[in-house]
Write a structure and sequence with these properties.
The chain has helices spanning 22-43, 56-67, 69-86, 93-112, 122-145, 155-178; strands at residues 2-3, 8-9. With 193 residues, it is mainly α.
């Protein structure tokens, strides 16, 4: 290697190499998919300000059940940060709302993993995560953006949206998981494991 500034060879001992694992690559692919879904959702107008289907959360649920909590947390947090950077919202109120929702949702998913699997599957965890996500956002809205009790009037509307979208996203994630569809296979043939 040659240092372009000084036309001298670069000492190989001074270069830094990052070792990546298969898990790193998996997280990157899944986070990229979640980011793409989030970006797609960002361009679709919403009938109610701030109410979105959260289709990127399908990826988080899929990852949670396929690869575990740590991988799902990485995918979710990377999605929040990268999407906010791509949309020009990093450190804005929108970013803070998204991060609060994601963190509370991840907390609830972590706790929910210890519930009886017979009664708490993909769909029920999706609904719980959707309610946690909206709760995290409402807490930020109430404490920081609109410090007024009237925020409580939003609860029934956003709770219905959380129930509806949590149910739909949970059903989609369930279908992906139990039809053994890989959401990261990029081959041209169908990917059934």
């Amino acid at each position: 290697m040659v240092n372009l500034l000084h036309d001298k060879p670069i000492d190989a001992r001074l270069t830094m190499q990052i070792k990546t694992t298969i898990e790193d690559h998996r997280i990157a692919k899944l986070a990229a998919l979640a980011i793409a879904l989030h970006m797609l959702e960002a361009v679709v107008p919403s009938p109610l300000p701030g109410v979105k289907p959260g289709i990127a959360n399908i990826v988080t649920l899929y990852v949670l059940f396929k690869h575990g909590f740590a991988c799902a947390a990485w995918v979710s947090i990377l999605r929040v940060f990268a999407s906010s950077l791509l949309l020009g919202q990093f450190l804005s109120p929108t970013f803070i709302l998204s991060l609060a929702g994601a963190l509370l949702s991840l907390g609830v998913l972590w706790l929910s993993m210890h519930l009886p699997k017979k009664h708490f599957g993909t769909v029920s965890l999706s609904i719980l995560a959707a309610f946690a996500h909206i709760a995290g956002q409402l807490i930020i809205v109430r404490l920081w953006l609109i410090p007024h009790a009237s925020v409580a009037y939003l609860v029934p509307i956003v709770a219905m949206a959380a129930l509806f979208f949590g149910l739909i996203n949970g059903i989609i994630a369930h279908k992906l998981l139990y039809n053994e569809i890989s959401i990261t296979d990029t081959s041209l043939r169908g990917s059934h494991h």
